[in-house]
Design brief:
Strands 1-2 form a two-stranded parallel ribbon. It is mainly α. Helix 2 runs antiparallel to helix 3. The longest helix has 18 residues. It contains 7 helices and 2 strands, in the order ααααααββα. It is globular and about 65 Å long.
Length: about 210
C-alpha cells in the first residue's frame, strides 16, 4: 500500500488501483502528521493517524465496508501478466531491513519467490536473464542498444532502477520533475506539470528524428 501510493502519486485523481485523490502521498502524509489540541501524541493517537493515512488507499471514498489489506489494486486491474513477466523475464528482488527503511525486516528470498512462480505458472525464474538478454545497465554496446529514451519521474520509487544518465544522444535519459510512475506514458491531463509536457515533446521529437 505504501509503495502503491508513492507509485501513483499523480497530480490528478485516479482509480485503476483504488479510488485515490490527486497527489495521494501528500494526502496520506497530511493525515498522518496532522496535529490538534485534542491529540495526545501517545501510541493510540499515532495508530489513529496511521489508520487515517492508510484510508487514503483503502477507503478514500468512505464506501468500503471491509478492508482487503492484501489488495494491490482493483479486481479489474489485470496485473497477473506482470507477475508472469517477473517470473519469466524480469526478477526484481524486493526486501527491507527495518534500519534503512520504514518497514519490518523482510529479507529477499529467491527460493520462496521461485516456488511462488512455480506454484502459479509452472515456471522457474531465471535471475540472470535480463543481464544476458538486455545487458542490465551495461548499455555501451551500441550494436545492440540504440534509439531508446529512458524516462524517470523523481516521485517514482521504481526510478531507483532506471537509467538516470544520458549515455549517448541515441540513448538519452529524460528526467520528469514531479513525475510519478510512467506519468509521461499516461494520457494528457490539464493537471500535468510542465516537466511531463516537455518530456513528451522531447520524446516525440526524438522519435521523429529516429524514424525519418
Amino acid at each position: 500500500m505504501y509503495g502503491n501510493i508513492a507509485m501513483v502519486d499523480y497530480p490528478y485523481p485516479t482509480s485503476f488501483l483504488a479510488d485515490l485523490p490527486a497527489f495521494p502521498a501528500r494526502v496520506f502524509c497530511a493525515n498522518v502528521t496532522q496535529s490538534s489540541e485534542k491529540m495526545s501524541n501517545d501510541d493510540v493517537d499515532i495508530v489513529k493517524r496511521i489508520v487515517k493515512g492508510v484510508n487514503v488507499f483503502f477507503n478514500y471514498t468512505g464506501h468500503t465496508q471491509c478492508f482487503d489489506t492484501g489488495s494491490q489494486g482493483t479486481p479489474s486491474l489485470g496485473d497477473l501478466g506482470w507477475f508472469y513477466q517477473s517470473c519469466t523475464e524480469f526478477v526484481m528482488p524486493m526486501c527491507s531491513d527495518g534500519v534503512n527503511d520504514m518497514f519490518e525486516k523482510v529479507p529477499w528470498d529467491f527460493k520462496a519467490f521461485s516456488d511462488e512462480c512455480y506454484a502459479q505458472w509452472g515456471v522457474r525464474p531465471r535471475f540472470e536473464w535480463p543481464y544476458i538478454e538486455y545487458g542490465g545497465k551495461n548499455l555501451t554496446d551500441f550494436r545492440y542498444f540504440t534509439n531508446i529514451a529512458f524516462t524517470n519521474g523523481n516521485l517514482d520509487p521504481w526510478s531507483a532502477g532506471g537509467v538516470q544518465t544520458t549515455i549517448t544522444p541515441a540513448l538519452p535519459a529524460i528526467h520528469v520533475q514531479g513525475g510519478a510512475h510512467h506519468l509521461d506514458l499516461r494520457a494528457a491531463n490539464k493537471a500535468d506539470p510542465p516537466s511531463v509536457i516537455a518530456a513528451r515533446q522531447q520524446i516525440v521529437a526524438l522519435i521523429q528524428k529516429w524514424i525519418l
